[in-house]
Write a structure and sequence with these properties.
This protein is 45% helix and 14% strand. It is α/β, with parallel strands linked by helices. A five-stranded mixed β-sheet has the order 2-1-3-14-4. Helix 14 (253-267) packs across helix 23, helix 14 packs across helix 24 (442-457) and helix 23 runs antiparallel to helix 24 (442-457). This is Multiple sugar transport system substrate-binding protein. Keywords: Sugar transport, Transport. InterPro entries: Bact_solute-bd_prot1, SBP.
Amino acid sequence: MTMEILLNIASGSIDKRTLRRRTFLGVVAASSFLLPALSGCTSSPANTLRIAYQQWGSGKVMENFLSSISGQFRAKHPDLQIQLIPLVAAENDYFTKNELMMSSDSTTPDLVCEDTFILKSDVAAGYLQPLNQRLEGWQPWNEVFDSAKTAVTGEDGKVYGMPTGTDTRALWYNSELLAKAGLPMPWQPKDWTQLLKDLRSLHKALPEVIPFNIFSGKAQGEKASMQGFEMLMYGTGDTLYDGDRKKWLTGSQGFIDSLDFVQKIYQEKLGPPLSRALDANLTETVYSDWLPKGGLAVALDGGWISNNWVPGAPAEWPEWSKVMKQAKMPTQKAQAPGYTTLSGGWCWAIPARTKKADLAWEYLQTIATTANMTAFNIADNGVAVRKDVAAQPKYRSYTPTIQFFTSLVEGATFRPALAAYPQISASIQLAMEKVMIGGSTPKQAAQDYDEQITKIVGADQVMGASGR
């Protein structure tokens, strides 16, 4: 199979836009990663439906869910074989593996789980087929929140995915540590100035504790861009992209101010030591060590992280809901709406090359029943993107934090899910890392970013943040 993919690259049958987003060496390396999942695969037999998804380490949430769906589906199609294809990979590697599979008739899945932030990039590369005709008159689509519909709509106005869930982000804080440092409970900083002041108080009162974690730098990948930088920048009033003018923005004071905040965290030792902050395994350390063991006071993170502490989880922590509380991430100067949150999420999509689109759609309809989506959001500790699911009593009470994180959806911002975004995101991570390590001032790093994105998208696709 690897040889076939490489021959397809050489012959040009793989869309050249893919190669602009992935280096040739990256493609070669990623193709070898596919072998464990698809060893010896050829074109899918007529009685086999292939479902591809990302598996997070040893996590089995999606596998267990799809096994249940497959059991329901086989009740209608007893002769059908369903092949689940878990891709165990870091986020960026998953995207590459997924694209490689979808680029060939012989390796394409029939249904694939897509991160909404990469969706438009895959649409631009010709990997996905629109669902508009299938969605007409289908009631579950009417239950999807408008913001989630936008996240799965391509630049051509067509819908390419069915959202399964979203997420929101906020400040998780150890109430025992903050109370020990003399901060008021419940804690809710009103703006960045107060947030930094309180973190400095924590550092002074509890020098053995890390005051704050914000994912930052290249090693943290998209977490740094979305859960870190964009949680800051979208609280300044500036944006990365002007949707009305369809231009990427340069010369943004909000961009500079966000980098300045990151620099303060690391210069003033309010965050983890640089050696840990730049460690690709930081996530595991934060969730399984620092937070449950009281080594970290405040974390800017997503609503799902308590999954790490529930019974049977790797870092089981029975007391987590009594200790860990939540506060909204404040905007820079307390401007409306008073908080910032970024939402992402995943969706199911049908690859363009599949020969079993009708069967894949039928399987997707089984996934999307109210009962099944409620069960999945609960198992995945996710935030519902559908009105019918959000109204279910089981959903509204399944975890102590779900109503807080669901309440943030109304004011959520989505990343500019455009084809160029993955490269833009990498440039953001580089800018963050420069100010973290002291290699650049925030202004210098922002100017470098402006130059990089101009090269990425072209001078005709950028404009000054002031509208010039």
